Amino acid sequence: MATNPSHETAHEAVPGRSPRRTVAAVLTALSLVLAAFVTGAAAAGPAGATSVEDTFTAKLNYARASRGVPRLATRTALVTVAREQARRMAAQSKLYHNPNLTSDVTNWRWVGENVGYGPDALTVHVAFMNSPAHRANILDHDYTEVGIGAVTVNGRVWVAEVFRRPLRVTTSSTQVATFSHTLRYGSTGAAVERVQGRLHLRQTGYYGTYTRAAVGRFQRAQGWTGRGSVGPKTWSRLF
Length: 239
Known about the structure:
This protein is an alpha+beta fold. The chain has eight helices and nine strands.
């Protein structure tokens, strides 16, 4: 019997930056209806995760690791958001995005969502991976965290995958030590290399004209003046 799992994805950009996903719709030859809306970390789900959720998490992180992309860390807060969306969809027997995703998820720099349904977790995951837009969410280097929620109703699995890169990185309740000095034209060292890597520049370790210009463009994209030096504010937004 042919199956018809459906799924959607969303990728939202931070305010002031252009969205990195576009709206698209795809119908595959296998009748899988797809709609796109647009490190190293733990593979296991949180305490209380169902076997279906664990399957999605394991398959997702295997897909990333096999391509050299860091695994996503599972975050309980994201799982909660994902489970609520999966339950809403199952209750209504309707596939749709969480309209409050960007407010339900806090502390985000990048946030995105895959939602879908099908006869089992593996079928839906394969359908996600067969769609360029949905696969892009799963393999996106910008994301570092995930929460997966799934429910099974009348033999149909409903799932929501919520992706995030935090705006601020925290460990337990204590924020990770922040950058406390300033990088400017003429600076050298590992911190300069890290900034250059984040901005997709050649990592020379020297803060020259091209680095200053790239930093300035990044700052202006945030709505800032864009002087081209990296202080604590710019550093925290970069990382």
